[in-house]
Design brief:
The structure holds 2 protein chains of 2 kinds. Helices cover 36% and strands 24% of the residues of chain A. Chain A is an alpha/beta fold. In chain A, helix 5 (124-137) crosses helix 7. The longest helix of chain A has 18 residues, at 186-203. Chain B has 2 domains: 45-66 and 83-225, P-loop containing nucleotide triphosphate hydrolases (Rossmann fold, 3-Layer(aba) Sandwich); 235-345, no CATH class. Helix content of chain B is 29%, strand content 22%. Chain B has a 7-stranded mixed sheet, sandwiched between helices. In chain B, strands 2-1-4-5 form a 4-stranded antiparallel sheet. In chain B, helix 3 (113-123) packs across helix 4 (133-143) and helix 3 (113-123) packs parallel to helix 5. The longest helix of chain B has 18 residues, at 190-207. The radius of gyration of chain B is 22 Å and the shape is globular. The chains are: A alpha/beta, B alpha/beta. At the A-B interface, helix 7, helix 8, helix 9, helix 10 and helix 11 of A face helix 6, helix 7, helix 8 and helix 9 of B. Chain B: It comes from Streptomyces cellostaticus.
Chain lengths: 324, 351
């Protein structure tokens, strides 16, 4: 396994109390595989990724437990200098908002080239040539002329391509993409997702795709991990989860999205609100919103039950959910 | 169609681009809205979809009289509202209210919920006498599914979905006949989106409202709309009933837009034909000649560069009947099914 996260816990100490953002997350990604981490805002999907990358703000953040194995090494035990080397070479991240992730006062060529100057000790001239090559690879038209342009001179889709180029620069084994297409229009979204999937195949990289969009996930992922209140509540191959979800939260999410091919009646809505991370309900965190909740859900935290060899569901009543 | 409540014709909004410090001169214009026509029937929901920069939000602002159009007219119950001022304008504004996109910035953080929802009554005191306002605000909170006891709380004490309900309550306060909702759910989480859409649906029949629903999410627009208009670079390129647009699109842009929407069904991955457009939307300061979509269109021919296609039933379809016959601004309009109908069978019913 390329990356394996085991029982990760992250909390944030704030003036108002301790927010438990990640409460025992475990997942793994193989080379060439795409894992989608699906969740709403506050589910802990991005915080998990930041902990894996080693870019979590600490303080206020704190990793209070767990291990992150990357290519066999526990990266949480590495020194900061070693981790820095790992970022870029080993794993790289693509952020949601390309305009704020890029430096507005440096040309894109300088920003792409910087990777080679810092990590590979290349000369500025060679680095510039490499930058053009990368921009070509992510299909930015007229790369040789545009390498001198600044981020604001590119459209949203083109900026996201530059982010992808930057992540690819040192040919990492793993890419973590945090909502890479959320800020883009649908027609551009499709272009960027296709490019990402193609490059992943070409380089045989592991890809973790963090998103809230069930549609995007269905189009590209191999496996899905659904997160709720800092935990994985369901993990399954992509085909299984859409056909027969084994957790009421996943089922609720699937039912509550309007579909292009159907003119529905009233939409199914999950009642209530996502929990406050400073005050997560006891037992199963989803129980106050769950249509299937029983007494046991209010007291006992459900473990990730094995539904099949490849599937897990953290619901005491996963059998009923699967068949109901 | 029911009797029209809004009739928009030839609507144009150009923002001048100025150059020079002392002697300013106009060097061009951002053509945000460049000739839009539609009608909204009473009790109907018209969805307007398009990508960012297509002018859909400018249309919303024009409808609410927040901006004056460069040309064209907006008739509310037969009266052109674009040239009104003073008392007459105020009266019309009461009847067309807006719900904004971002529930985090559209509510004043220093005002209580009661003051926010009650503020429209300060501007239009004739709607509710002073002594009656608190009661009305409580009623409105109840209508949108919030606890009336929350009347003295501040916006930051609410979640995104609850804030959007506050925005909707404010929109309803003056009992308008038309509500213009500009991306009302795009800032919300999936599980909360459904709650707000159901609320809007319910309010429509309860208060006999007509909606103009503006969004970039095609699935949501289909869910809530009776008719749908697709906008591209300041113009409506195709308009029709939801089945006409989604199941029988004839404009290549609509087809590309529909085919690009990710469908939450991994099996549709293989079955679906995807049309991936090349390039980006051209700048609204420099709109292509003829058909404005031609620079990204795979069907474009010489005629497209010379002749602006009108929004009407295309030549090839005249005299025919069926759902493919509707207004589409393309010289080479052809029906093409992009949303696979079989996918419907795999859908999960409400669980």
């Amino acid at each position: 396994m390329l990356l394996e996260v085991r029982d990760l816990h992250v909390e944030f100490r704030t003036r108002d109390g301790v927010a438990k953002a990640v409460n025992g997350v475990s997942y793994g990604v193989d080379a060439g595989e795409t894992l989608a981490v699906l969740g709403e805002s506050g589910s802990g999907k991005s915080v998990t990724a930041q902990a894996v990358m080693g870019i979590l703000d600490m303080p206020p953040g704190r990793i209070t437990g767990g291990e992150v194995f990357f290519q066999g090494k526990d990266v949480l035990k590495l020194k900061e200098e070693e981790r820095r080397r790992l970022r870029g070479y080993g794993m790289a991240m693509i952020f949601q908002d390309a305009l704020s992730a890029l430096n507005p006062v440096l040309s894109v060529g300088d920003q792409l080239g910087e990777m080679f100057v810092v990590h590979r000790r290349m000369s500025k001239k060679d680095a510039r040539a490499k930058a053009v090559e990368l921009m070509d690879r992510v299909r930015i038209p007229g790369a040789a002329e545009r390498v001198r342009d600044y981020p604001h001179q590119f459209s949203g889709g083109m900026r996201q391509r530059i982010m992808i180029a930057m992540a690819l620069a040192l040919e990492p084994a793993l890419i973590i993409a945090d909502e890479p297409t959320t800020a883009l229009d649908v027609t551009v979204q499709a272009q960027v997702m296709d490019l990402l999937a193609e490059l992943q195949r070409e380089y045989h990289m592991g890809l973790i795709l963090i998103t809230h969009d069930l549609g995007v996930v269905a189009d590209v992922a191999d496996r899905i991990a659904v997160m709720y209140a800092g935990k994985i509540v369901e993990s399954a191959p992509v085909h299984d989860i859409y056909k027969s979800p084994a957790h009421p939260y996943t089922r609720g999410l699937l039912d509550s999205i309007p579909r292009l091919d159907q003119k529905g009646q009233e939409l199914y809505a999950i009642k209530g609100l996502p929990p406050n991370l400073m005050n997560i309900p006891p037992g199963c965190a989803f129980h106050p919103r769950c249509p299937m909740a029983q007494d046991v859900c209010r007291t006992d935290v459900p473990p990730l039950y094995e539904v099949s060899e490849e599937r897990g569901s953290a619901c005491h009543f996963w059998r009923e959910c699967l068949h109901g | 169609m029911a009797e029209p409540i809004l009739e928009v014709s030839g609507l144009v909004k150009h923002y001048p681009l100025m150059q020079g410090v002392l002697f300013k001169k106009q060097v061009g214009a951002v053509k945000a809205v460049d000739g839009v026509d539609f009608t909204l029937g009473k009790g109907e929901t018209l969805g307007i979809v398009g990508e960012s920069g297509c002018g859909k939000s400018t249309v919303a602002r024009l409808l609410c009289n927040l901006e004056r159009p460069t040309a064209g007219s907006i008739r509310f119950k037969g009266e052109d509202i674009t040239r009104l001022s003073g008392k007459a304008l105020k009266a019309v504004r009461r009847n067309i209210q807006m719900v904004f996109q971002d529930p985090y910035t559209s509510l004043n953080p220093r005002m209580t919920v009661g003051d926010i929802i009650g503020e429209p009554y300060e501007i239009h005191p004739e709607v509710a006498p002073k002594g009656d306002r608190r009661r009305r605000v409580r009623e409105l909170l109840d209508v949108v599914g919030l606890n009336p006891e929350y009347i003295n709380r501040y916006p930051h004490q609410f979640s995104g979905g609850q804030r959007q309900r506050i925005g909707i309550a404010r929109g309803l306060a003056l009992r308008p006949q038309v509500i213009v909702a500009d991306e009302p759910v795009s800032a919300l989480d999936v599980s909360v989106q459904a709650q707000v859409i159901n609320l809007l649906d319910g309010l429509q029949s309860e208060f006999d409202l007509s909606y103009v629903f503006i969004a970039h999410d095609l699935s949501i627009v289909r869910h809530i709309s009776d008719r749908v208009g697709v906008m591209y670079l300041g113009r409506i390129v195709e308009i029709g009933s939801d089945a006409e647009i989604y199941d029988h699109p004839t404009h290549p842009y609509t087809q590309a837009l529909l085919s690009a929407v990710p469908v939450p069904d991994p099996e549709a991955r293989e079955r679906r034909e995807r049309i991936i457009l090349t390039g980006d939307v051209p700048s609204p300061t420099n709109i292509p000649s003829g058909c404005r979509f031609r620079t990204r269109c795979w069907k474009a021919q010489e005629r497209c560069a010379l002749e602006v296609p009108a929004l009407a039933v295309p030549e090839g379809f005249r005299g025919a009947s069926g759902p493919a016959v509707h207004d589409s601004a393309c010289h080479f309009a052809e029906e093409k099914q992009v949303v696979p109908p079989e996918a419907a069978e795999n859908g999960n019913g409400p669980g």
